[in-house]
Amino acid sequence: MIHLNSNIFQVISKDYFKNLFIKIKQNYTFKTSAMKYNFLFNHILFWENNELNEDLLNTILLKPFNEMIKKYPELNNYILTCQLVFYSSSISNLNFKNMSNDEKKTIIISYVSKYNNKWIEPIMNQQSYYKSKKAFSYFISTINIELMKLNDYISSFINYMYIDSDMRHELLINLESSVCPYCNRQYITPYDDNGKLKTTADLDHFYPKSIFTLFSLSLYNFVPACQICNSRFKLAQGYKILYPYDQGFSENAKFNLKINTTSDINSLIGDNSNFELDIELFNNGNYNEEIKNNIKLFHLKELYDIHKDYVRELLYKKYVYANTYKEQLVTLFKELNLDEHEINLFLYGNTLQIEDLGKKPLSKLAYDILND
Ligand SMILES: [Zn+2]
Q1: Distance 229 CA to ligand 1 centre (A)
Q2: Ligand 1 geometric centre to CA of 5 (Å)
Q3: Whole-angstrom distance between the N-terminal and C-terminal Cα of the chain?
Q4: Which of 23, 68, 73, 130 could form a disulfide with 162 if both were Cys (CB 3.0 to 4.6 A apart)?
Q5: What is the pLDDT of residues 269-293, one digit of tens each?
C-alpha cells in the first residue's frame, strides 16, 4: 500500500556487499556440467577473465531490478522465466468450466506472452501449451524443471543462509521503515534487547528464493513487513501484488467514505458512524489487478472497517478546524513559526505529506480522508 523509499539501501550497500562477496567467492565453483543447462546466462555471465564476475554480483545484490536488467539484459530472461512459473497459479486456479476453447486459448496465450523470452521460446515451439489447462500445466512444469537445475547450481553459491540473525536485524534497522508497507497499520520499529537493537519486523523476499534463487540476497528483494502481513503473503504465493519499491496505492487507490441508507448530514462531519469505508480504485490508474490483489490478500477492507472511529475523529476535526477554531489556531501557529506540515501534525497527528506515509500507522487513511 505504501511506496517504500528506494534510496534506503544506500547507507548499508558497501558493507553488505563486502560481507557477502567473501562468502559467495568461497562457495562458488565453476561447474562445467552447468554449461549444458538449457537455461543459462549467456553461458559465462558469472565467470569473467578467470574470475568470479564481481560487477555482476554487485549489480544483483545491490541494484533495483530495472537497473539490473539495463546493465545485464540477459538477467531479464531469468526474471521473466521465474515470473512465468511463479504467477502460473493464477491460470491453474481459474475456473475454465463455462468457457469456449477459444476463450481458454486466448487467456493462456495472453498470460504466456507477458513472460515470453528467449529461454522459453524453444519449449513454446515444441508444445501446444494453449490447448488445455493440462497442456499449460505440463508446459509450466517442463520450464520449471529446467529452471530448478539452474537454481540448484545458483544456490550453491548465492544462499540466504549467509545472512545470520544479527545481520538480518541490522539490515532491518537500517531500512528505517517504521510501519508495515502492506497494511500501514502495524509498527515495525526496533527495540533494545540487552544493549542490542532488534526489530519487530519480518524480513521477507518479495520474490521467493525457491523460484527466484538468484535474488536470495538482493537488497531490493527484501521487504520489511509486519508478521501478520508477512504470513498472509507467504500463504498466498503466486498472487501478483504491488512491488513496494516501485508502487504504492498513491493516487491509484484511495480510502473513501461511502454513504449508505442510514447516513445523514452528520455522518459527513464525524457525528455518527453511519457510513461505509471503502477503497476506491481509479480507472485511469494502472496496476488495478495488483491493487485488487493487495486488498484481497491483506484483507484491507475488513481490517480498516474497525478504523471507522478514527475516520469519525478526522472528519470531526476537519469540520471544526475549518470554522471558528482555525482562525485562532493560525494566529497561534504564526507565533510558533510552524509550517503547513507541522500544523497538520499538531491538528491531526499526521504531516499529510506523501513521503511521510510510511512513518505512522493509518497515515494513508488520514491522507485520503482529509484531502478529499
Ligand atoms: Zn502489515
Answers
A1: 4
A2: 17
A3: 18
A4: 23
A5: 888 888 999 999 986 667 899 999 9
